[in-house]
Amino acid sequence: MLAASKARLVPLDLFKKKYLGAMEDELDAEAAAAAAAAFERDKAARQRAGAEPTIPFEVLQGEVAGAHPIAAWRKYRGMTQARLAKEIGIDRGYLAQIERRGRAGTPETLAKIARALGCLVEDLLE
């Protein structure tokens, strides 16, 4: 036999008037706290990496136009594929394949690219 439940039905208009606002406020507060925590984690990660405090507008414009994030950051920094590839010790063709989305790039390669471009690895992921 089921135990007696203390649940009660509440008319919808009473629920909206008395409870819905408080529930929405609580959910908003939770979402704001989660966003603030994520912002602080990102800020701390950028400081540890010596990266820019935010993603520059020019980089975002490049990505919106269809450029791979690596290409957008590279162009923002005024670097050629050849220069970036040489700086991090990979073949220019490999970098070109990553930027064309033909290859993903290893985590180690992405970390080297992020350090050379002054951003986080997360900034280079689509």
Structure commentary:
There is one protein chain. The model has no long low-confidence stretch (mean pLDDT 90). It is elongated and about 70 Å long. Helix 2 crosses helix 3 and helix 4 (81-88) crosses helix 6 (107-117). The chain contains seven helices and no strands. The chain is mainly alpha-helical. The chain folds into two domains: 15-49; 57-124, lambda repressor-like DNA-binding domains (434 Repressor (Amino-terminal Domain)), CATH 1.10.260.40. The protein has helices at residues 12-49, 57-64, 69-76, 81-88, 92-99, 107-117, 121-124.
Set down the secondary structure blueprint.
Blueprint: H1 12-49, H2 57-64, H3 69-76, H4 81-88, H5 92-99, H6 107-117, H7 121-124
Envelope shape: elongated
Instruction: Count helical runs.
Output: 7
Integer average pLDDT:
90
Broad CATH class of the largest domain: Mainly Alpha
CATH homologous superfamily heading of the largest domain: lambda repressor-like DNA-binding domains
N/C terminus separation: 54 Å
Q: Would you identify the CATH architecture of the largest domain?
A: Orthogonal Bundle
Number of strands: 0
Order of helices and strands: HHHHHHH
Radius of gyration: 24 Å
Secondary structure: helix percent: 55-70%
The number of domains = 2
In the CATH scheme, what's the topology name of the largest domain? 434 Repressor (Amino-terminal Domain)
Report strand %: under 5%
Low-confidence stretches: none
The major beta sheet can be summarized as:
none
What structural class do helix, strand and pairing data support?
mainly alpha
